[in-house]
């Protein structure tokens, strides 16, 4: 893809919802390399799947030969963005904010420029905001923006009309973000800011400020928001808590989330949340329409997203783990896949003497699949217990041959109640 092709690709994916001037932006992209930036505030220690849209827009721009800048808003995160919210954000202290900035900066880099080949830059707006004085802010920014303009922004107007209102702190947010655009234009030649449609008012405030203080035209592009079935924005605090951090949403859980995407959503999410070429997506969706029961489009979506977020090895392990937990043969699963299963189901550690005396009935009890050893033995007698996929008819001790890859023994009671015995090295 050339530097000029990227806008058409974004349009084909349905990711161009608002632009300052589509023709002017297309002409600028056609002339050659542009520097674009995306800003994300560290209001939590992880980004979420809604943020993945923007990270992949930056990735596509970088892949097309443009320069990209990922910004973690250490300064604006101290203030809180009123966009898309009906109430005031809780203000974060310095220690929590610093940890959040570090965490989301790593996530931005991992998706936008995983191998460092795109020359992406990653910045924190606190670096150029901490020393800013109130007088300088009022003289250099405030005098160029009228209160009338600020009141006209949807995010501000909605809060003014709400029961909670809006504080002066959040009211000033758009001015700090606008100043970021000026600073990045001056220091990194940024000419394009991208973001979700809820950021439109903040972004065009920056476009306008650059024009007023530098006398040049810069650009803005926004995509539609990823929403839930009820039409509500998916975000950190609005019910769509599918995180990019493995500690919050494991690769297996992320994979399962996308496996379960509704048929009506799969085309859009393949376009927005994967790097697959659009013609390949169209062919995949057509094949899915011919045999939707196989859920091949969802499976490919889950595989691609998990790979982008966590890497190919984690995605492969998540897919294998999914197969195991939905009736597949665990004896052929890889060690990483069994480790992924162990992280999702109740686990019992086998350490030292416990390993020698462990029985299947005792493990079922210790894992919480039954309430007592006698209940476990009844389940065994009834043929309702499986060890590594094989049905057992009676209790017995666990032996070395039962440990897959020398560590794992998968227990199942009934159709879906799993537990894992894990030998401690």
In short:
With 425 residues, the protein is α/β, with parallel strands linked by helices.
Explain how this protein is built.
The structure is a single chain. With 425 residues, the protein is α/β, with parallel strands linked by helices. It folds into two domains: 6-223, Rossmann fold; 345-425, Roll (Structural Genomics Hypothetical 15.5 Kd Protein In mrcA-pckA Intergenic Region, Chain A), CATH 3.10.290. It is built from 20 helices and eleven strands. It has helices at residues 6-12, 22-31, 49-63, 76-79, 94-112, 134-140, 147-152, 154-160, 168-171, 173-188, 200-214, 251-259, 263-273, 278-290, 296-310, 312-325, 335-344, 353-357, 360-367, 373-381, and strands spanning 18-19, 35-40, 67-72, 121-124, 190-196, 219-223, 347-350, 385-387, 390-392, 408-413, 417-423. Strands 1-6-5-2-3-4 form a six-stranded mixed sheet, sandwiched between helices. A five-stranded mixed sheet has the order 7-11-10-8-9, with helices on both faces. Helix 12 crosses helix 16, helix 15 (296-310) packs across helix 16 (312-325) and helix 19 (360-367) crosses helix 20. The protein starts with 5 loop residues before the first helix and ends with a strand. The mean pLDDT is 91.
